[in-house]
Amino acid sequence: MTDAPAPARRGTARERLLVAAGELFYSEGINTSGVEAIAARAGVTKATLYNNFRSKDQLVAEYLRGRLESSRRNRARFDDPAQAPAGRVAAFFEEVEHAIANGTFHGCPYSKAAVEVPGNAEAMVVVQEHYADVIAHFTDVTGDRTTAETIAMIYDGGMLAAKASGTAEPMARAKAAALRLIAS
Amino acid sequence: MTDAPAPARRGTARERLLVAAGELFYSEGINTSGVEAIAARAGVTKATLYNNFRSKDQLVAEYLRGRLESSRRNRARFDDPAQAPAGRVAAFFEEVEHAIANGTFHGCPYSKAAVEVPGNAEAMVVVQEHYADVIAHFTDVTGDRTTAETIAMIYDGGMLAAKASGTAEPMARAKAAALRLIAS
DNA sequence: TCACTTCTATACCGACCGGTATGGCAAACA
DNA sequence: TGTTTGCCATACCGGTCGGTATAGAAGTGA
Question: Which of A44, A90, B1, B15 has the fewest C-beta atoms lying within 10 Å of its C-beta?
Fold first, then answer.
């Protein structure tokens, strides 16, 4: 609605572009966010954007890859394989619950991207990597791949319902369902 | 990619437009499908489209409403309240499994629309109606609203995973998880 | 000092978008 | 019969899209 608000002015132009693109893509949508608006938000011109990225498609892919690697780093840092499976699964769901509480949750970035970009886009590679990551993680936690895939479905469905309802309650219910599943 | 293929030529212009819009919106995406392409597919010109619909937004809303009411009719016709809950839940999931087998499944139309359309669009009303319908149905079947909401999450997550994988297998797993839930 | 890189600013491109206007033709209906 | 209604075709509107071209300013390192 309003003009681009105060952008982050730290870091290289490329970094600022990725930050700005991430904010706009995630909260306003990928197709809805024009390259001009992204550049403006980064305090940069369109020419600079195209000095740093081959195309908008590549920018989308790198934005998603940034999220993916950030998730991997968080998992490496905070997930404790020595902990009981229930706690590890709960932590995974609670990350989303916290994002909702913070008001920073706008749905699963990957499932949103899968709807917004064409199937042959660079970004879709990252989307597939994400799904593989999640299933691998739950497989590692529960020791069973079928269980892991079921939990992943509950996880994605929970995010969808949370987004639709605007509350964190569906995510809590999703967590409960997942915990019930691994308890049996 | 190619030109508009052979359109259905039965019915009024309005009906053909709704069919064409439905096919394009669902398989190619809402934002990706221009009004000109929809009109061409219906064997009609853009002027006729705007004689029958106020705006593209209204066309999207009526397309979704058509799907919603078709679902309601199917449920009224084929769902048997005398049957056991397990069978009724299974039938609900199997509808999607059949669509996947037919190659006519391209993800949940409502969750896709929710991503593609702005939050204040007419179409979002129909999306909310759909979610309420699903939860009401599962509540009717299971007798418990919390269980119903969990099943609905599994259902949505299953469709997401089915779309991502391109196979019907996640949907079968979702069905199994839902049945396990109501068995306890 | 000079060359190189990276940024800025601006102007432009062709394509497509949703939407409107006009005018004519054909069938349905009085 | 005359009139209305629905559809046709075409041409156009302003706006935005992703992407390119060009020329100059600023900082850097040799």
Answer: B1
Integer Cα distance of A157 and B44 in angstroms: 39
Architecture label for domain B57-183: Orthogonal Bundle (1.10)
Does the C-beta of B74 come within 7 A of strand D? no
**pLDDT at B10 (0 to 100):** 64
Task: Find chain A residues with C-beta within 8 A of B156's C-beta.
Answer: 156-157, 160-161
Q: Do B149 and A173 touch (CB under 8 A)?
A: yes
Note the CATH number of domain B1-53: 1.10.10.60
Q: Does A179 touch chain B (CB under 8 A)?
A: no
CATH architecture of A64-183: Orthogonal Bundle (1.10)
On strand C, nucleotides with any atom < 7 Å from a protein CB are 6-11, 16-23
Angle, helix B56-78 to helix B13-28, in steps of 10 degrees: 90
pLDDT digits (tens, 9 = 90+) for B78-112: 999 999 999 999 999 999 999 999 999 999 999 99
* Confidence (pLDDT) at A167: 95
- Summarised one tens digit per residue, pLDDT across range A100-116 is 999 999 999 999 999 99
How many residues appear in chain A?
184
**What's the pLDDT score for residue A9?**
58
